[in-house]
Structure formats: structure tokens, C-alpha cells
Design goal:
Blueprint: E1 3-9, E2 15-22, E3 32-35, E4 37-39, E5 48-54, E6 61-68, E7 73-81, E8 84-87, E9 110-111, E10 120-124, E11 129-130, E12 134-138, E13 143-147, E14 157-160
Antiparallel strand pairs: 1-5, 2-3, 2-6, 4-5, 6-7, 7-8, 9-13, 10-11, 10-14, 12-13
Length: 164
């Protein structure tokens, strides 16, 4: 399978993750996200990352870049066209809500599409990586669902892209 790729350089205190934005499934307004794999093309330079995505799609690719450091997170939209990554110059509009409960936990079931893409990605800023969900089969709903274990009193980033 042929691949497309692009390379970015982080500063020493930053860590960048990239996600492909897939078009919404029929009947929904939420796009699905696919975290992109990466490698360090120069093992001695761990600040330079090359991200990969399959080239089965002939169109330009919509990408979200999430850059995290110890105190802040930055979100940028980008388009990959002909191996060239064009990143937006202005920050992307971001809406968020704080989930807080002093005595109980809040759970949210995530629907998976048949190819196991999901409309939300939970990121642990301390690890600068996605929290891996546990898949299970819900017999009552006759579908595969996922659950994510979150630690109390810890911050997470929930990334969800809605088509405008």
C-alpha cells in the first residue's frame, strides 16, 4: 500500500500528535478521527517526526495537529496536498466544556463505525498520547462499544470534530 507522509519538528518541550479527519458517516455531523503513526527518520533527532497515512484517498487530506507541553495545548488545522502540509496561520475555533463531578464519575459510550473509527479521541496530556479504549460487545444493543478508564482529578483532552 502506498503512503503519504509529512514531517514536522517539535521544540524540546513540545509533543505533537496528528489526526486524519474523515468525513462524517451518513446521518451524523461528527467526523471520525484517525491517529497517524509516526517515526523518527533521524534516530539521533527525536524532535523531527514523520507522520504517515495511506494514499488510498486521491483528495487532499484534512489533518488536525495537537501540540502539547506541560502547561498548554495548541490545536491547528492543516491540509496535506502533494506531500506539502499547509497549516492554518490563525488558531482554529475551539469549543470546550469542563466535566467535573465531586462525588461520581461521568461515562460516555462511544459509537464505533464498522471500520472502528470513532468520533472522539481522549488524550492524556502527561503522556502526550491517546488513551486506549477497551472494546466490548453490548448484547442488548447488538453492537461493539468502547469504554475508557479515566483517573479522578486528572486533566484530559477530548478531541471531537464536528462538520460545519
Amino acid at each position: 500500500m502506498e503512503e503519504k507522509s509529512f514531517t514536522i519538528i517539535d521544540s524540546p518541550e513540545m509533543c505533537t500528535m496528528a489526526f486524519r479527519i474523515n468525513k462524517p458517516e451518513e446521518g451524523t455531523s461528527y467526523c471520525t478521527l484517525q491517529k497517524l503513526d509516526y517515526s523518527f527518520p533521524e534516530p539521533e533527532n527525536v524532535l523531527k517526526k514523520t507522520f504517515y497515512l495511506d494514499a488510498s484517498n486521491e483528495e487532499d487530506e484534512s489533518i488536525v495537529l495537537l501540540t502539547i507541553n506541560k502547561e498548554k495545548a495548541f490545536l491547528n488545522a492543516a491540509v496535506l496536498k502533494d506531500e506539502q502540509l499547509s497549516i492554518t496561520k490563525e488558531p482554529t475555533d475551539v469549543s470546550f466544556k469542563v466535566l467535573y463531578s465531586a462525588d461520581s464519575s461521568e461515562y460516555k459510550d462511544l459509537r464505533y463505525t464498522p471500520n472502528f473509527k470513532r468520533p472522539i479521541s481522549i488524550i492524556d496530556p502527561e503522556m502526550a498520547d491517546e488513551v486506549r479504549p477497551t472494546l466490548y460487545y453490548d448484547e442488548d444493543a447488538n453492537m461493539v462499544k468502547a469504554k475508557i478508564k479515566l483517573q479522578p482529578n486528572k486533566s484530559y483532552i477530548a478531541l471531537e470534530i464536528k462538520q460545519m
